[in-house]
Structures are given as structure tokens and as C-alpha cells.
Amino acid sequence: MAKLIKEIQAADYRKEVLNQPRVVVDFYSTECPPCEALAAKYEALSEIYGKDIPFVKIFRQGNRELATELDITGSPTVLFYENGKIVGDKLTGGIKRSDLMKNLDTLLTESEKTITHAKIKAYETETDVVILGGGPAGLTAGLYLAQAHVKTILVDTALPGGYVATTHLVSNYPGFIEPLPGMMLSHYMSEQAKANGVEFRAAVEVNNVDLKNKTVTIDGVETIKAKKIVIATGSRPRPLGLPGEKEYGGNGISYCATCDAKYFQDKEVVVIGGGNSAIEETFFIAKFAKKITIVHQFDHFQANMVAQEKLKKLENVEILLEHEPREFKKYGTMDMGVVVEELKSGKRKEVRTNGIFVFVGFLPNIEAFNGKLALDKWGYLNTNDEMETSLEGVYAVGDVKTKAYRQITTAVADGTIAAIAISKNI
After folding, report:
1. pLDDT for 7-22, tens place per residue?
2. What distance in Å separates the CA atoms of residue 273 and residue 194, rounded to the nearest whole number?
């Protein structure tokens, strides 16, 4: 632990926190990947801000009563205090350096802030390979590279695991007889990569990616110089682009059943979509909602037959085939409306519901590359058989690249191929 960070117990809380003019406190846990991701940022910022603002850590698992009293339900949780009162944002989960700095700055005077920011120095880190993205493809590439003694740094704007971490259950990944929570599969993969020597830069902001010169700048301070780059940035849920979608996203409209289904206990929801994701996520939502209405544009589902047969057994599901949504409305808390059109007749009606889940496919995360790589007609990255893109030394793996099928198993296969190819040529 850095010399400017002080670890305390609940008994010291009043003296070291409440009786100080200003202080920042990190409530952390052990065996906690988000806590590990925060630790390096917290330590680095303590060297910059620590002479003006005391940096404190409290072991949450050993101080449960205090954590409960402060309504701390997740690790890590960072709180900012001024004259004994909590101020600013309550930061939790994948905490970014910029959010820490924003709140620390509010505790300083303008002159103190100027002096403090002058201490921030940019620096460079050299490595053999930098991987952009910590989903199954990126983690597998990292694992193989590290085992081949290729120095590898994995950069992720979120926490390692990728979209799989938000999946309720994974039932078709080899080696697991019983369905495995997506979060746990992601955790096992990231811990295995870490144990084999992959360095992580998690929950960071990527400021610049220079593919030609193989550099990546993160958090405004660190520039990573590599010999090869692996793009494993994955994809994100495709929006429908309908009126009301942007306004009510995260406020009545969700793209993640694992994240939000629990809030709809004994409520009614609408699911938009009919592919594997839509139907698989419906099973999870059905554990909570009393009624689900599925809206799908075709006259049959595109999900696999096993999922379709399972869907038929759900008694709380109503299906509107050959219907498309046209507009989303919000009337109040958990009071939504979906205007749907019957495609054959053109007639429209409104379905009132408590919440809406949208599962209509994905878009590749390629914005950071500024059109410098060849794409297919759907906007995914083209690669050769060794996963190399149109730019020498730049590889693409997983859901961000052109491929017939996007599954966890195909993602890890991509990561394997790219890593082996790089290991032989570096």
C-alpha cells in the first residue's frame, strides 16, 4: 500500500474520517476484481492528491456494521467527505480515474487544484502486445500470449468479462455439465489470464489508439507502446432508433435482463426480438415478471429449436408475431407504452407495460479506429485466416470481426488463432 494511504477500522472512523476537513475513503473487499482495478488508480492518485486530502481504505468484509450503516452494498465503494459529511458522487463497481479526479477536485480550492494538477506527469509503458477488450476473445488471446512468454497488456473500458458477464446462464460452453452464470465464466477466464501473467488496465478511458504506430493512450497519462495490437472490442446491443428509445433508455427501456429483470417482480414487461438472445433472456425475465409480451417482426422465431420448445412451456408469455414496434412512451414510474404495428394489416395499437427489454442484435465497437481498417458490408472488421486485419500487425478477434457465427466458443477460437500467429512472428 502506498505511503499516503492509511488503512483503518470502524473504531477509527470518527477520528480519521468524520473529524477531518476532507478525506476520501475506499471500502474494498478481497477476491474482488473491481477492487483490484481500482487499487492502482487509487494509489497513483494518492501520490498526487494525498498531501492535501487523506486517502483511507476500509476492509468492507471486516467492518460490515459500518458498511451497512453507510448503505454500502457493493465493493469497491468510494466516498468523499467534507467536514464530516458525505459529498459528491458515490462511486462503485468499475470506477474510472476521471470520476475519482472530478470528485477529488471538488474538495480542493482553485489554487490547490492548479498545484495538484501540475504534478500529473504522462508516462510510457512498453509491451509486446496490447489487447483492446477483455471479453472471451481478448482474454483467451492474452492467456495464450502470456503462456508463450509474450509480454501482454489487456486494456478494457469496463471490467474484464465482456458482454458474457451480463448473461444469466451459459449452457453450451464445453467443460461445464450444468449451466454456468455468465459472470462466473467471465471471472474464471480473467483470473486464469491474470494468473498466467497478463497485465490488466481495467475500467479505463481510452483517449487515443494509433494503429500504425501501435500505441494506446489511456486515462490521459499512460501511453502503451506495443509491437502488435489485438482488437477484441466486441459489440454492443443494436438500438431500434425509434421515438422514445433514447429518452427512456435506462429509464424504462433495458438491453440487459441480468441487470434489470429483478426490478420487475410481479410486473408486466415487453420483449422486442425473436433470436437466441431475446428468447434466452426471456427465460430469465420470466423468473420475475408475471407477464411477458414478445414482439417479433417475422412469422416465426430465429432462436434455436431447443429454446423455442422451452418457450412454449412458459404460461406467462404472450407472443405477437409479424409485429414491429413504432414508438415508446412513458407515463410514469414503471408505466410504459409500446406502439406496435401489425405488418399484414398496417393497424397499430399500444401495449401498456411496466418495462421494455430490447434484444435485436448487435453493432461492432469500432469507433476508436476511425475507418482505418477494412470492413465487411455490415461494418465488421475483415481479417485473414490468422485474424490479421488489413493493417499489418493489427489483429481482430471475437464479435468485432466478420464471421458466420458469434458464440463464446468462436470468440475463444479467434483469440487462440491470433495469439499463436503473433507468438510465431514476434
Report:
1. 999 999 999 999 999 9
2. 37
